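Chain A, query sequence.
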Amino acid sequence: MLEQLTEFIGRTHLVLLHFPIALLIVAAIVELLRALNLRRAAARYVPGPAASTMFFFALLATAASVLTGLILGFDDGPKVDQHRILGIVSGVLVLITTFALLAARSPGAKKAPSIYLLLLTVSAAAVGLTGHLGGEITHGEGYITRPLTRIFQDPTEPISAVALDPAMFDITQAQLDTYLTDIQPILDASCVECHGPEDAEDDVRLDSIEHVLSPDTSILMRGDPVMSDLVYLIELPPGDPDIMPPEDHADPLTPDQTRLIRDWVESLGS
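Chain A, predicted structure.
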């Protein structure tokens, strides 16, 4: 029970992380505008009550996001490590900014308001960058802008069977043909966006047979679909948070597509 409760708390990270991003960015914008208006009026800048209130809730949300993120944990990978480190750094920045805010609101404070404004801006940028990197981990690099970039790109040409030698991968010609005809189109449509050359999430690439059959990854065990992560993840029941492709990212594979992949993996053992 404790394990399930801990896992639930960790997964709330995906909800909580939106609050500090929005609150800090809005607070920074409000304070910057306030500082500009007071400067034009030749008045001394002091933190305003509205932005200070937002920052207080952002502090709580940041602490909760960092804590749940550490509880959640992630698979190893350079981007995940970056995200984790940047999240901790952002949390420390927000904490330091809290002390700067308290000093800035003290009577007679001179330099403290300017220092607070600078730290608030840096904290908002750091938290926003951390959230952006986390989004790329879950949805793939350039997830938001990728539909726009496709307007100016030519469709990717499929790999020609003539250019590949099945002996290179220790498989038969029939197995290679099945991959190129049945398996690769499924992976291209549902997996390559997050596991391709632009962004190999969790260091897994599924954009070519070279990477699918690479001995450096455990995503596929030849002849053993039960022990293959690729088959396991696509066969998870609808609604499972670990199902691939993620339900908020792409349509789930059909039973026929899942069967094709399972049968092909099993055939690699012969």
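The first helix runs from residue 2 to 11. Residues 104 and 113 are 4 Å apart (CA to CA).
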